[in-house]
Amino acid sequence: MPHIRRTQHLGLAGLLVIAVAFTALQLTAVTGRASPDSKNYLSYALSLSGESRAEAGRRAIAYSCDSGQHAPLDTIPWTSRKAAGKTEAQCVRRLTDSVAYWTRNGNTSGMTAPFANQRFMAIFEARPGYPLFLVPFVTAFGAVWGLWLAGLLVALAGAVCVLLTLRAAGASRRAGLAGAALYLALPTGTVAMNPLSDGLSLALGTVVVLGCTLLLRERPSDTSGAGAGRGAEAAGTRTRAGRRAEAAGPRVGAGRWADAAGPRVGAGRWADAAGTRTGAALVVGGLALMFLVRYSQALLLAAALAGVLAARAAWSHRKGRRSTPVLRAAGLCALLAALVYAGAHLLSWPMGQDSAQDLLTHHYQRPDRPDPWPEFFARERVFWWAWLKRQATYPFLPVLLALSALALGKRRSAVLPVAVGAGAAGLLNQAGHPNLDQLLGHRLIVFVWLLPVLAVPLLLDRSRPGGSSPLPAQPKKVGGGQRDGTVRVVQQAGEGA
Fold first, then answer.
1. CA 229, CA 243: separation in Å to the nearest integer?
2. How many CB atoms lie within 10 A of CB 309?
3. Which of 201, 215, 317, 345 has its CA 20 to 30 A from that of 294?
4. Pairing of strands 482-483, 489-490
């Protein structure tokens, strides 16, 4: 028992050290993170908190212009912030004039301040989840510290979900902590801290990833022959697998690992206890909240997971392996994708056509294209060619993706197909916005970084044959009994009658 407590304390201490280090680093840039869209979300949140639309706009302008005076810091890598240009007074004057102009030209309703035409601002009106999340923070701590604290909570929550996901997939405590640290150190952590809806959407995405992993993992009760083994235990007989295991001598591979691992504690114990109902609830709840925060990303994540998991189920079926759990997870994600699309359509929220027109008409300030798709796909080619050249120049992401491919080839884990689906969702989201202004940023493609975050830590663990999650450890003998080949304790005839 003391060993269990000590192991659990080590895991909590490791997570606490990571969280404290990340928090200390973020304190070097409490402000200076705002993007042009941050003022839209902040004004929405202030309106929800009871401010008038005019006052919410004024406070959002003050925050945005103050943030713009702070240049990027080398201690916060991968940020998309730009060096200060105009003075704060010039910035305030320009945005105030813009609000007055669009108010005179018909933008007089909605929760967001009229920083642009009503059609463009409708994009942010369709994302009420993030402003609603911000309300208690900006009300209690003001705009600067409220947005910073909200980002910190979102980032740490995503890191905890990554840790739980890896533990649920059978990874060691060391790999789980490495995944949490990677999540905070890579652009996922930076995007989570930025005052935009992308960070909260990403954190909810890790909830969905955790739920899918719980749906896919091989639980001990699901192993073949479990029912027969339980019957043999009740009758007090030895199973055939048990006789084979006894004759085989020392246990190797997964069995020997289970012998040495000891009882799972902390996150690992929670992962063992969580079942498929918990997984399904996390997937449904995560995507439902994502729908309110950023419905387009929820749609792409659900669709990408459904496609990747369906392909995995087909591959497992061809190999003669059990594919029912994977197929059920794929069906659930496909159903939720259809519901997200139907919900956005019924609410008349901007869809793909609107996004293409937004890109090609500079936020609807020019006439719509009669047929936007040829020009849109031409932009796609230009963007991805420039993106590939940048990756060749700064190959940090390609190296991590190569390590992820190595993990895919050498490890069997329930989290790997889910990580591939999440990464595909990031690529799809970026493909929907082929804007060269986003070439140096990471917020639109951020989900692709979940692949190395979830896959690379698995390389820290030795490969274990036999599945995606560790088998629960059992004592070698209980009352003179023997353990069979499925790591269960059975009694000899006559014991325990």
1. 12
2. 28
3. 215
4. antiparallel
Handedness of CA 391, 397, 402, 408 (dihedral sign): negative
**Cα distance between residue 24 and residue 32, in whole Å:** 16
- Distance between CA atoms of 339 and 283, rounded to whole angstroms? 13
**Which residue reads 């190595």 in tokens?**
406
Token code pair at residue 449: 């970084």
Contact indicator for 486, 248 with CB cutoff of 8 Å: no
Apex 437 CA angle, 435 and 442, nearest 5: 90
Query: CA torsion sign, 337 to 341 to 342 to 343?
Result: positive
- Helices (H), ranges, 68-110: 88-104
Q: Give the number of residues written for the chain.
A: 497
Q: E-assigned strands of 79-139?
A: none
Give the bridge partners for 489, in sequence order.
483
DSSP code for 110: S
Handedness of CA 133, 136, 137, 139 (dihedral sign): positive
Q: Contact, 321 vs 366, CB < 8 A? A: no
By the 10 Å C-beta count (0-12 exposed, 13-18 middle, 19+ buried), 186 is classed as: buried
Residues 91-102 pLDDT 10s = 999 999 999 999
> CB atoms < 10 A from the CB of 434, how many?
22
Nearest Cα to Cα of residue 179 among 440, 422, 466: 422
Task: Look up residue 280 and give its amino acid.
Answer: A
- Residue 322: name the closest of 408, 243, 232, 412 by CA: 412
Compute, in degrees rounded to 10, the torsion defined by CA atoms 274, 279, 282, 288: -160
pLDDT grade for 490, boundaries at 50, 70 and 90 = very low
Please, are residues 490 and 482 in contact by the beta-carbon 8 Å criterion? yes
**Nearest Cα residue to 424 out of 391, 389, 451, 453:** 451
User: Across 223-237, 248-262, 296-310, 320-334, which has the greatest mean pLDDT?
Assistant: 296-310
Tokens describing residue 224: 């073949």
Distance of CA 94 to the CA centre of its chain: 37
Is the overall model pTM greater than 0.85, yes or no? no
